Amino acid sequence: MATKRTDNEILALIADAARNLGLRSLSINQFRRATSASGGPDPGIVKKRFGSWNRAVARAGLIPRPPHKRLRGDHLGGVYRKCRARPRAKKPAPGGLPLGRLLSHEAMMFEPTSESGVILLFGALAAHLGFRVVKLDRGFPDMIAWRRMPQTERWEQVRVEFELRSANYKAHRHPLPGDKSGRPADLIICWRHNWPGCPIEVIELAALVPGLPRQRAGGDAPQQIG
């Protein structure tokens, strides 16, 4: 029979899971995936022990996520229900732009289909990823921000370029490490990472959305996150 974990042991598991993922906050799904191999406690037990998941996260020294309500068909006049039945082929939205696949995320109903969508989704995740935005620019790079580095926990200023797919950075002829044409970005933030051997660090936002298949750089078959 397994030994019952103490409150401090559970809080340590939550803090360790967030640290290993390089996050300042932690969702239930992220905790479940991070501790499933080691037989971590069920999140339902954690919520019952501490009163709520956010209270447990705060007790572990992390940033609680703001509460949100899951979108439902009855809340939006059946729009959400109809979107679930949408065929995989992209259909024009009312404004003429195609819609991506449906997401299970509180900030966006559909996956990004443009660089602007990537920026919007990042804005919803920025604080949880340890970023503080200094400025956005129309030129290169797209953003200057302070970032809490996952390995050291120290804040460093980074130059960020947003792309729908990471290989677009090269296609747009932005500076690369070693180029004499200019200073490269420190970080590429994209929806999908499709550039094998990319010489710049990449954050793939698709990998951070629970339950969404992740595609390896280079167009290999999708694999489930975690």
Describe this structure in words.
This protein has 226 residues and is an alpha/beta fold. It folds into two domains: 7-59; 82-87 and 97-224, no CATH class. The chain is built from seven helices and seven strands, in the order H-H-H-H-H-H-E-E-E-H-E-E-E-E. It has helices at residues 7-21, 28-35, 43-50, 53-59, 79-84, 115-125, 168-171, and strands at residues 131-136, 143-148, 155-165, 187-192, 201-204, 213-214, 223-224. The strands form two sheets. A five-stranded mixed β-sheet has the order 1-2-3-4-5, with helices on one face. Strands 6-7 form a two-stranded antiparallel ribbon. A hairpin with a 6-residue loop joins strand 1 (131-136) and strand 2 (143-148). Helix 1 packs across helix 2 (28-35) and helix 3 (43-50) crosses helix 4. The chain is elongated. The chain starts with 6 loop residues before the first helix and ends with a strand.
Query: Fraction of residues in helices?
Result: 25-40%
**On the 0-100 scale, what is the average pLDDT?**
80
Number of strands: 7
The domain tally reads: 2
User: Which structural class do the helices and strands define?
Assistant: alpha/beta
As a percent range, the share of strand residues is 15-25%
Q: Tell me the radius of gyration.
A: 19 Å
- What is the straight-line distance between the termini? 28 Å
For the sheet with most strands, the description reads: 5 strands, mixed
